[in-house]
C-alpha cells in the first residue's frame, strides 16, 4: 500500500509456507505469496509520506483532530470485520494458539479504541488555558514527521499497532514494514487502511530490510524510527540516517527477565506463574521469564515440580482445544535452541525434565536446564524460545548483582511472602528494571501501564497514554492579556 494505492506487483516474490502441517509426513503447508519490494517502492513510499506531511503543512498534520479521529474510527470498524481471517492466519503463519490469536486481535481493537479515547482526553485537557505571570498558555501536542515503523513476528498485530496507531493519530504519516513472519495476516487489513486514511498517510511495504528499510533511512527524511525487535537492526538502521542526532527513537528490544523465588515463596503459585511466564507462546515473548533464580532451601522441590509440570504441557496444532505448546514459525529456531542446550550440558548443566529437547519437525519440547553458570550462553543470551535455565542462590545479593551487571533491564518477577524482606528489595529492583511483578509473572499489559526498559532493553516508553507523548512534541500557544 503506497500513496493510497494497492500496488499490482510483478517483481520478485516469495512463497510463504507454514511450519505447521496436518499431514503425517510434515509436508509444509503453502499459505500464499508475498512481494519482495525494493528501493524503488521504498522511495515511492517515502515520497508519499513526505507529501502527506509536507514539512508540517500537509493534509495529515494539519487535519482537524475530530477528522483524524474519524479516520481511525473508520479503520477500526473495518478491522473488526476481518477478525476470523486474521486469527486464522495468526495460527498458520506464526503458530499462535487459537485463544492467544483471538486475544491478540481483540486486545489490538481495544487498544485502538483506548488510544482514541486517550487522544480525545489529551486534546480536551490541552484546550484549557493556564495563566502564569500574565501570560496565558494553551498547551498541545503536535506531530513530529514521517515515522518508519518495524514490528516483530511474535505479536505481528498487537505490538506493531502499539507503534503505528499512536504515531498516526498524532499526525505523523507512517511507513510500516512487517517482520519476516506474519506478513500475510496483514493482507485483510490493507483495504481498511486504504479506505480510511488519506493518500500517503499509511504506507505498507513488504520486503527485505536492506532493500526496503535501508533506503528509507538513508533518505534522511524519517523523523522517528519506531521498532520492536532486536538492537542490532535498530542500531544498523539508525546509523544509516544522515542526521541521526535529530532522529527520535522509540524502541522495544531484548530482555532477559529473571524470576527470583525466595525461600518463603508460595511454591504452588510460583510454579504456575513461572510455567506460564517462561513458556506461553513457547517462550517467544520479550516479557517471558528467561532465567529462574531459586533459593537453595527450596530448589530441590521447586526444580522437581517445575520439571514435572513442564512435561505435562500439551502440544499440538494451534487450533486444537487446550493446546499450550505449538510449532515454532522460524525454521532455524529448533537448531538454535539445541545449540544452547548443548552448550549448557557441555559445561555441566543437566536437562532435568524427561521430554526436554525432543524435536519433531519444527516443534521442540521445552528443556529445563540446571544448574546454570555464568560461562553458559543461556546465562545471558536471550533465548526467545522453549528452554528454561535455572540457577540457585543462597544470598539475595547474588541475583541482584547479576541483574546489575546485565545488559538488559526490562522486568523481574519476585516470589515471596515476608513483606519485611520484600519491601526493601523492591526499592533496589526498581533501579535495575522498570517493572517489578510481585508473586506474578512478567507481562506487558494491561496496555495502559508503561512498557519500557533500562539499558539495552528499550528506548522510550509505550502505553496508551505514554505512546501519544512519545510520537509527538509539546507545543503551546501563548498570549498576553491585552
Ligand atoms: O514480546 C513482547 C510482548 O510485548 C509481550 O507482551 O507480555 O503481553 O505477552 P505480553
Automatic annotation (TrEMBL):
Organism name: Flavobacterium caseinilyticum
GO MF terms, alphabetically ordered: oxidoreductase activity, acting on the aldehyde or oxo group of donors, NAD or NADP as acceptor
Family: Belongs to the aldehyde dehydrogenase family.
Keywords: Oxidoreductase
Name of the featured protein: NADP-dependent glyceraldehyde-3-phosphate dehydrogenase
Residue ranges annotated for the Aldehyde dehydrogenase domain, each copy included: 19-472
Cross-referenced PANTHER family: SUCCINATE-SEMIALDEHYDE DEHYDROGENASE, MITOCHONDRIAL
Amino acid at each position: 500500500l503506497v500513496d493510497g494505492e494497492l500496488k499490482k506487483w510483478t517483481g520478485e516474490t516469495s512463497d510463504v509456507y507454514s511450519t505447521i502441517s496436518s499431514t503425517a509426513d510434515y509436508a509444509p503447508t503453502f499459505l500464499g505469496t508475498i512481494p519482495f519490494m525494493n528501493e524503488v517502492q521504498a522511495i515511492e513510499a517515502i515520497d508519499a509520506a513526505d507529501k502527506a506531511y509536507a514539512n508540517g503543512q500537509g493534509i495529515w498534520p494539519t487535519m482537524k483532530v475530530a477528522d483524524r479521529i474519524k479516520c481511525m474510527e473508520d479503520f477500526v470498524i473495518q478491522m473488526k470485520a476481518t477478525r476470523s481471517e486474521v486469527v486464522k492466519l495468526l495460527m498458520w503463519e506464526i503458530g499462535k494458539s487459537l485463544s492467544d490469536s483471538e486475544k491478540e486481535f481483540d486486545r489490538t481493537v481495544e487498544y485502538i479504541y483506548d488510544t482514541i479515547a486517550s487522544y480525545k482526553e489529551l486534546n480536551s485537557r490541552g484546550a484549557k488555558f493556564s495563566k502564569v505571570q500574565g501570560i496565558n498558555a494553551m498547551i498541545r501536542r503536535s506531530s513530529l514527521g514521517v515515522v518508519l515503523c518495524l514490528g516483530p513476528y511474535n505479536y505481528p498485530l498487537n505490538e506493531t499497532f502499539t507503534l503505528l496507531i499512536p504515531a498516526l493519530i498524532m499526525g505523523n504519516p507512517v511507513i510500516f514494514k512487517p517482520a519476516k513472519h506474519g506478513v500475510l495476516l496483514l493482507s485483510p487489513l490493507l483495504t481498511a487502511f486504504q479506505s480510511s486514511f488519506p493518500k500517503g498517510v499509511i504506507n505498507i511495504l513488504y520486503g527485505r530490510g536492506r532493500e526496503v528499510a535501508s533506503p528509507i533511512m538513508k533518505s534522511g527524511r524519517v523523523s522517528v524510527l519506531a521498532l520492536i525487535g532486536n538492537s542490532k537492526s535498530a542500531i544498523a538502521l539508525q546509523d544509516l540516517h544522515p542526521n541521526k542526532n535529530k532522529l527520535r527513537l522509540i524502541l522495544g528490544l531484548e530482555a532477559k527477565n529473571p524470576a527470583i523465588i525466595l525461600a518463603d515463596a508460595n511454591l504452588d503459585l510460583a510454579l504456575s506463574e513461572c510455567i506460564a511466564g517462561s513458556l506461553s507462546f513457547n517462550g517467544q515473548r520479550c516479557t517471558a521469564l528467561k532465567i529462574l533464580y531459586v533459593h537453595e532451601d527450596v530448589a530441590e522441590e521447586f526444580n522437581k515440580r517445575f520439571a514435572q509440570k513442564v512435561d505435562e504441557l500439551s502440544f499440538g496444532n494451534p487450533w486444537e482445544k487446550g493446546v499450550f505448546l505449538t510449532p515454532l514459525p522460524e525454521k532455524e529456531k529448533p537448531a538454535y535452541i539445541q545449540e544452547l542446550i548443548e552448550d549448557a550440558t557441555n559445561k555441566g548443566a543437566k536437562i532435568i525434565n524427561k521430554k526436554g529437547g525432543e524435536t519433531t519437525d519444527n516443534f521442540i519440547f521445552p528443556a529445563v536446564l540446571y544448574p546454570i553458570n555464568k560461562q553458559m550462553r543461556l546465562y545471558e543470551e536471550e533465548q526467545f524460545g522453549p528452554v528454561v535455565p535455572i540457577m540457585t542462590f543462597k544470598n539475595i545479593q547474588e541475583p541482584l548483582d547479576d541483574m546489575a551487571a546485565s545488559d538488559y533491564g526490562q522486568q523481574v518477577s519476585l516470589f515471596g511472602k515476608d513483606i519485611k524482606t520484600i519491601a526493601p528489595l523492591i526499592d533496589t529492583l526498581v533501579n535495575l528494571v522498570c517493572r517489578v511483578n510481585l508473586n506474578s509473572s512478567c507481562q506487558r499489559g494491561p496496555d495502559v501501564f508503561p512498557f519500557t526498559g533500562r539499558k539495552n532493553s528499550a528506548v522510550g516508553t509505550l502505553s496508551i497514554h505514554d505512546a501519544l507523548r512519545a510520537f509527538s512534541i509539546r507545543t503551546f500557544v501563548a498570549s498576553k492579556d491585552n
